[in-house]
Design goal:
Mob_Pre; disordered C terminus; Plasmid recombination enzyme
Length: about 500
C-alpha cells in the first residue's frame, strides 16, 4: 500500500539536503498555496486536443459527467472547432514551424484550502485569477476560459494565443526563462492569492513543475485515495447483527478497486495527449516523406533531361566531325558511329535524328529512318508470307472437302467437320466476302473454287451456321437457301441415305 501512495504522490526524502530547499514542506492538510501552472501548446493538433478536454467534448476520466452543468464558461469559444477558428483569426500570417501556438493556464489552490473556501469564495478567487490572466495577455487573445466544478478540486483553465504588442507569436516574451516564471508566480500571489489567504509556493525549492495534465491527474488521484480499511458494520447489540464476513470483504474489495481507479484516472488525459502527439509526428513524417519523394522525382527528371541533352549534343558533334573527316579510315568510323547511333537513337529527339540521318546518308551510310523503314518492310513481308501460308493451308484443307464433294449431298459428316468448314471459309475470305457469301452470293468465293456444286454445298453449311448463330434471315434469303437445297437434291437424286427429303 505504501508503494502505491509513493507511486502517485512521489517519495519525500526526509533528509533536508535532498529536498532542494531550506524548509520542509508543510504536511498535508495545512497547505494553503496558490497554484498557477502554464503549459505550452505547439501545433493546432495539440490545441484541438486540449480544447476538447477543457470543453468536455471527449471522455474525461477524473471528471463527473453528472456535474458537467456546474462548469462555468467565462469567455472565448464553447467548442473545440470555435477555439481553432479564433486562433486562426488572431494568428499572424507567418508562423514558425517550431513556434508555441498557444498557452494554457491552470489556476487553483491547495485542495484542502479550496475545499475550505467553499463554492462562492472559491469561484470569486478563480474569477479574479481570470481577470489577472486577461490583464497580462489581453482579453482579445483569450481562446477559452472555463471554471471546472466537475472534479474534486475546482480550478480555472484558460487557453490563449500569446500575441505580443508587435502582433507576433511570442510565448517566450511572456513566460520564457526561470526568472520570468518565478516573477509571474510572485506577482500572481501578491495581486490575487493573498486576497484569499493564499501563499506562494516555496521559492527556489528545486521542485519540478509537472505538465498540467499530469499534475491534475495526481491531484485528483491523491484527493480520492483512501487506504484505510473501512470498519466492519455492527448491529445495535454490538456483536449480534454484525456485518457478514463475505459482505465486509466485498465492501473492502470495492473500496480498493475505487482507489486503483482514481489512482490511474489522472493519467488518462496525459496518455491521450501523448497518443495524439505521436499521431501528429507520424503525419508530419509522412508529409516530409512525400515532400522528399517529390523532390527526388524532380531531381531524377532533371538528371534525365541533363543526360538526354548531353547525349544529343555529343551525337551531333561526332556526326559533324565524321562528316568532314578526310582520313583513309573514314568508312570504318562511319560504320562504328552508325552502329553506336542506331543503338541509342530511339531516345533522341526526332529533330536530332533527322539531322544525323541526313549526315549519315550524305556519307553513304544509313540513318535511323532508313533502317526503321527497312525493318518495317521486312516485318510486313514476313507477315504477308505467314498469312499466305495460312491461307494456303486453309485452301488445301478445303480442297480435301472439295475432292469428296461428289460423294454425297453433304460434305460435313459430323458437327466437328461442320465447324472446321466454317473456320476454313473465314480464313480464306475477308469479312466482306464472307458476309456476301452468307447472304447467298456464290461469286464471293470464286477464288476458293469454281465448282458450283461444291460452292452450293459450302453455302448449305453456312446456312446451318446462320441459323445456329441467330443470323437474321430475310424472306428473300430463306427462298434463296431453299432453292440452293433444291438444286442439291436434284443433283444427288439417288442419295437417300442422307434423308434430305425430310429437311426443312
Amino acid at each position: 500500500m505504501k508503494d502505491s501512495v509513493e507511486q502517485v504522490t512521489g517519495k519525500l526524502d526526509l533528509e533536508l539536503k535532498n529536498n532542494g530547499g531550506s524548509l520542509y514542506r508543510p504536511r498535508k492538510g495545512s497547505r494553503n498555496f496558490a497554484i498557477l501552472r502554464v503549459g505550452k501548446l505547439k501545433g493546432l493538433g495539440k490545441i484541438g486536443a486540449a480544447a476538447r478536454h477543457n470543453l468536455r467534448e471527449r471522455d474525461t476520466g477524473n471528471a463527473r459527467p453528472e456535474d458537467f452543468s456546474r462548469n462555468i464558461h467565462l469567455a472565448g469559444a464553447k467548442t473545440a472547432d470555435e477555439v481553432l477558428e479564433l486562433w486562426k483569426e488572431r494568428a499572424p500570417d507567418k508562423v514558425r514551424t517550431n513556434a508555441v501556438h498557444a498557452l494554457e493556464y491552470v489556476v487553483t489552490a491547495s485542495p484542502e484550502k479550496m475545499a475550505a473556501m467553499g463554492q462562492t469564495t472559491g469561484e470569486e478567487y478563480l474569477r479574479d485569477a481570470f481577470a489577472w490572466v486577461q490583464e497580462k495577455h489581453g482579453a482579445e487573445n483569450i481562446l477559452s476560459a472555463v471554471i471546472h466544478n466537475d472534479e474534486t478540486t475546482p480550478h480555472l483553465q484558460v487557453m490563449l494565443i500569446p500575441i505580443d504588442e508587435r502582433g507576433k507569436l511570442n510565448a517566450r516574451g511572456f513566460i520564457g526563462g526561470a526568472a520570468k516564471l518565478s516573477a509571474m508566480q510572485t506577482d500572481f500571489v501578491e495581486r490575487v492569492g493573498k486576497n484569499y489567504g493564499l501563499e506562494r509556493g516555496i521559492e527556489r525549492s528545486g521542485a519540478r513543475h509537472e505538465a498540467i495534465k499530469s499534475y491534475y491527474g495526481r491531484v485528483q488521484a491523491v484527493e480520492n485515495l483512501s487506504f484505510e480499511l473501512p470498519e466492519r458494520a455492527t448491529g445495535r447489540l454490538g456483536v449480534f447483527g454484525r456485518e457478514p464476513v463475505a459482505k465486509y470483504h466485498e465492501r473492502v474489495a470495492q473500496n480498493q478497486r475505487e482507489v486503483l481507479r482514481t489512482t490511474t484516472a489522472g493519467f488518462v488525459a496525459e496518455l491521450d495527449d501523448k497518443d495524439r502527439e505521436l499521431e501528429n509526428k507520424d503525419r508530419e513524417l509522412a508529409s516530409k516523406d512525400r515532400e522528399l519523394a517529390a523532390k527526388q522525382k524532380q531531381l531524377d527528371k532533371t538528371e534525365a533531361e541533363r543526360r538526354s541533352e548531353f547525349q544529343r549534343r555529343h551525337t551531333l558533334e561526332v556526326a559533324c566531325d565524321i562528316r568532314f573527316y578526310k582520313g583513309s579510315d573514314k568508312q570504318e568510323r562511319i560504320a562504328r558511329f552508325q552502329k553506336e547511333y542506331l543503338s541509342k537513337c530511339a531516345h533522341l529527339p526526332e529533330e536530332t535524328r533527322e539531322i544525323v540521318d541526313i549526315l549519315l546518308e550524305d556519307m553513304g551510310g544509313k540513318g535511323f529512318w532508313h533502317i526503321e523503314q527497312e525493318r518495317l518492310d521486312r516485318e510486313e513481308q514476313e507477315r504477308a508470307a505467314q498469312e499466305e501460308g495460312e491461307i494456303l493451308a486453309a485452301r488445301n484443307a478445303l480442297a480435301g472437302y472439295e475432292a469428296r464433294s461428289s460423294d454425297g449431298y453433304k460434305i460435313a459428316n459430323s458437327a466437328e467437320e461442320h465447324q472446321e468448314i466454317i473456320r476454313l471459309l473465314k480464313e480464306n475470305t475477308t469479312d466482306a466476302q464472307y458476309d456476301r457469301f452468307r447472304r447467298g452470293d456464290l461469286s464471293a468465293i470464286d477464288h476458293i473454287s469454281e465448282d458450283e456444286v461444291f460452292r452450293r454445298q459450302l453455302l448449305m453449311e453456312v446456312e446451318l451456321n446462320n441459323r445456329t448463330t441467330g443470323f437474321e434471315m430475310s424472306n428473300e434469303l430463306e427462298n434463296l437457301m431453299s432453292d440452293n437445297r433444291g438444286f442439291l437434291k436434284e443433283t444427288f437424286g439417288e442419295d437417300r441415305d442422307h434423308g434430305y427429303e425430310n429437311e426443312r
